[in-house]
Amino acid sequence: MRTLVVVPTYDEAEGIRTLLDAVLREAPAVDLLVVDDGSPDGTAGLVTGHPEFRHRVHLLSRPRKDGLGAAYRAGFRWALAGPYDAVVQMDADLSHPPQRLPALLAALADADVAVGSRYVRGGGVRDWPLGRRAISRCGNLYARLVLAVPVHDVTSGYKAFRREALVRIGAVDAESDGYCFQIETTWRASRLGLRIAEVPITFRDRTRGTSKMSGDIVREAMLRVLRWRWREISGDRVPGAVRHHHDVAA
Fold first, then answer.
1. Residue 193, domain member (yes or no)
2. CB 186 within 8 A of CB 149
3. Which residue from 10, 165, 151 is spatially nearest to 76, judged by alpha carbons?
4. CA gap 111, 14 in Å, rounded
5. 110 with 196: CB under 8 angstroms?
6. Beta 124-126 vs 113-117: how paired, if at all?
7. Cα–Cα distance between 36 and 60 in angstroms, integer?
């Protein structure tokens, strides 16, 4: 499958070249799209200066920081306008191990969506303090129970989609702008009955740059999860299965 890896960035100059080199090394057949939200630290310039720029490395520049979900929606639109059979989303800070990229893509042989999971056998987290581990575990459990999603790591941001799955779940029309975008796409895939595989990964805390997580992002996720569940209980149709003019050939 021809594959595009979408990487959103904001002030990731310290590590973006390392990430690009690692992905290109571990998955020699993939292309990369960096979606940069106007980083003032020169992230975009490092991408355009990469030896593989315009060959396997591409840049989508956006004028301002507009949220993780918005960046992914823009990247997915770019991917669906191209010839790609599979699309991967991953962080720019090397928290998501590039060496697990081949395993994620291999899982798409029998699945529509492959989730890089910290919470299945063989997965785990390194370099996180106990408090951060507890917050992650509790947030993940909260989303799983409220939405009744049978995925162990529903908050994972390391995922691979078949093109058809990305279209069916209506990812480019997702509602979330913050980190709950990760929950939303997995929830939509589950409700539509798509095949979801979990691939164990070891998540490492970032060693470069600064985290974009905030209290507002956590609150958005908690409230949206409740709102989605209430809509389901009220009988509203789960969003998804949206066709777009550029996906007719998908």
1. yes
2. yes
3. 165
4. 35
5. no
6. unpaired
7. 6
Q: What pTM does this model have?
A: 0.89
Burial tier of 132 (Cβ tally within 10 Å: 0-12, 13-18, 19+) = middle
CATH number for the domain that contains residue 178: 3.90.550.10
Q: What tokens appear for 47 in the block?
A: 């991408």
Count of the separate structural domains present in the chain:
1
Reported as a single tens digit per residue, the pLDDT across 157-209 is: 999 999 999 999 999 999 888 888 999 999 999 999 999 999 999 998 866 55
For residue 11, being part of any structural domain is answered with: yes
Strand 3-9 and strand 124-126: the pairing is: unpaired
Residue 245, in any domain of the structure: no
Which domain, by its residues, includes 232? 3-238
Give CA–CA dist 84/194, Å, rounded. 19
Secondary structure letter of residue 183 according to DSSP: H
